[in-house]
Design brief:
The complex is a heterotrimer of chains A (258), B (311) and C (258).
Chain A lengths: L1 E12 L7 E12 L3 E5 L6 H8 L7 E6 L2 E2 H6 L3 E4 L11 H11 L4 H14 L15 H13 L5 E5 L7 H18 L2 E6 L2 H7 L2 E6 L4 E7 L8 H5 L1 H19 L2
Parallel strand pairs in A: 3-8, 3-9, 6-7, 7-8
Antiparallel strand pairs in A: 1-2, 1-4, 4-5, 9-10
Helix pairs in contact in A: 3-4, 3-5, 4-5, 7-9
Chain B lengths: L13 H29 L23 H7 L12 H36 L1 H14 L8 H10 L5 H24 L4 H9 L4 H36 L8 H10 L5 H29 L17 H6 L1
Helix pairs in contact in B: 2-10, 3-4, 3-6, 3-8, 3-9, 3-10, 5-6, 6-8, 8-10, 9-10
Chain C lengths: L1 H28 L10 H10 L1 H35 L1 H15 L7 H8 L5 H23 L4 H9 L4 H37 L7 H10 L3 H29 L11
Helix pairs in contact in C: 2-10, 3-4, 3-6, 3-8, 3-10, 4-6, 5-6, 6-8, 8-9, 8-10, 9-10
The chains are: A alpha/beta (258), B mainly alpha (311), C mainly alpha (258).
Amino acid sequence: MSAISLSGVAKTFRTSGSSDVAALDDISLEVRSGEFVSLIGPSGCGKSTLLRVIADLLPPTTGTVLVNGASAHQARLARTYGMVFQAATLFEWRTVAANIELPLEIMGMPRAERRGRARDMLDLVGLADFAEHHPWQLSGGMQQRVAIARALSFRPAVLLMDEPFGALDEMTRERMQSELLRIWKETATTIVFVTHSIPEAVFLSSRVVVMSARPGRIADIVDVDLAQPRGVDTRADPAFFSLVTKVRESLRTIEVDP
Amino acid sequence: MSTPPVASRSSGSPRVLSAASLLIIILASAVLWEGYKALGQAAGGVWPGTDLGLPIRTNDRAMPHLWDIWASLFAPARRGGEDILLVILLEAALYTWRSALIGFLIGSATGFAIAVTFVRSRLAERGLMPYVIASQTVPVLAIAPILVIWSGRLDLPSWVPVSVISAYLAFYPVAIAMLRGLRSPEPTASELMRSYAAGSKDLLTKLQIPAALPFVFPALRISATASIIGAIVGELPAGLSTGLGRAILGFASSFSSAPEKLFASVIVASLLGITFVGLVAVAERIVVPRGARIDPDLARVTGDPRAVVAA
Amino acid sequence: MRAANWRTVAPAVVVFAVVLVGWEVGVRVAQVQSFILPAPTAIAAAVVEQWPTLSAAARGTFGGALAGLTVGAALAAAAAGAAARWSGFRAGAMPLAVAANSMPIIVLAPVANAWFGLVSPVGTVVVVAVLVFFPFMINMVKGLLSASAAHHELMATYAATRRNVLWRVQVPAALPFVFSALKIATPLAVIGAIVKEYFGGPQDRLGQYITSRAGLFQFDEAWAAIVVASTFGIFLYLLILLAERRVIGWHASLRTTN
């Protein structure tokens, strides 16, 4: 069964001026349960918009979004989505543990259970020693791991990630990618991942969706059949390189032929 | 479970919305005034159904009709006098503004000098900063009579103590905001200047002062109001024959016979404050480039100019 | 650490001592008459001698100031809550509040005297409340709206109610702004209460005490009252700094590097 099912989704932004901006046009996509799908494309291809449409943060102009058979709106009210942004967006007045507990508090989980869940999540992202720290005492990579722990704390079926590693340095980034794959394996969450980086998309995903800009359309879908679990060796695998090249070619065709 | 919409879209231009909303709030306030008055008089000055007195008496002696206040502006200020109240109040306002302007200029210059001194000398800052902050807890308005006596001994004109009090209230926001502004450039910008072999004077005039301008203007607006307050209150013990402070004190003493005149002078004093602040805002538009302006009116701001003033 | 602390405080202490000694010596050597400038020792003596009268007067005045501060802050919180909630109301209320903030509100003092009577404490409370209302309201609205769009999106993915967003995001985010407002409003309240009495008020209050003593050329006693007033103002200010450190120690302006 599809975890996420998009059919004929379009999104037009009405501007106060004369012209409307078509951000997305005729997007149809099926994401299987437990799949890791990346969205990649040039700036302005609407990949972040698409993520927000799936999350019911923006209503689509036309088309339908179904998540586990229900509408995106129902799915949001049922707390189906965990969301991670490029900025960690932690609440600076809360400790690391309290940040992770925030969604649980809102969902009415008893205090003791919350504590336990936060501890499990901190173990999962390897930050058990930092529970009582405040966000500003953590490095950028650590903050982003807290954001991931927070997004997963209430065990959402779908994890939506908007360039989560975009602000990290290359070394941290690669380490975070491996961490994310491990967490994905352990939690069996469906992940939709927006990125600018071709190697990142290939390394992480089971499928890479290549999008074109203005209006945002799906230009190509590249299946990534690299063996699991992926690690340092994967990055040196010739198959990895040929897939990177394939995605790059795909992106290049878009730019040549707009 | 109800959840708020994430992105709310307002219809119509924000300017029109703002003007309409402003008008409604002002009208509602006027209706509240007249409504409270009418209901209070109908109920005999008590909460309807009880014998508890209303907090403010509703007769024409305590709460004149708004239209009576308006009309009083155009009636002769004194029985048999020539000048209408508006002219007399405007003359008084002009006089007060002159003292306030002098105080504002002296105060801003002092604030500027303090900030430049502090930014160049850590020792001066450590030694004097606590007193700059503490200065605002001194009820300086209360030493107005003392200042009046001092300036009398020195044969200074009577507006001098008024302007001094104005300046005392006006310097503080500028000093604090200017200091914050002078320190606002990134360290890399100073390093770049040094790589051009710029001296500390160049650093000040070419980097720090331009960077401080957006911080200073919101503070100047606060100083403008403070200088008016200083002038009005400073006039009270100065024994002046004119000025808004004088007029307000005079109309306060004749409140029971002609309350609308006190309200009219309160309105003129308020307009003087708004006008002065408005003039500073116009100066800001000319001096500070659009993108660099810190707008204290803006709901969403990151660099809070009032926080700057308070810190 | 301790030595560094001392180094930051020492210059201020030295300035205090030098000014005080210089003042005392200057007044004695030049034989300045006391109605021009009384010596610090004379003022100190007046504080001691007049303490029963002064403390009673101060209690009345400061009580009015604190009551006004509380009432003004509470009303401002209600108004700010409404302005943050309804953008239509905000569009009109904010420009109005900014305009009101440029008015010399203290001129309402004679109106309050006429309305509530010279001897009633209500007049002082009302004037102080109006005086502090606008700085509080403007800062609170800014604070309530200071959380980022991403933080609001995050709360939407938790399907958080408006009440949850208000108390868990907007109010904590507004706290630093409330402290900024407190730092402006508290000295304003103390000075406002005194100046209100300046326009007329009960005889046994600080404002009237200062004016009457100055009128009688008893300047050491007038100065004694001023010293009492500013000591209280400084005490309140320090109290706020202390509370700020405890309540919003997480805020960027207060962080101590660990």
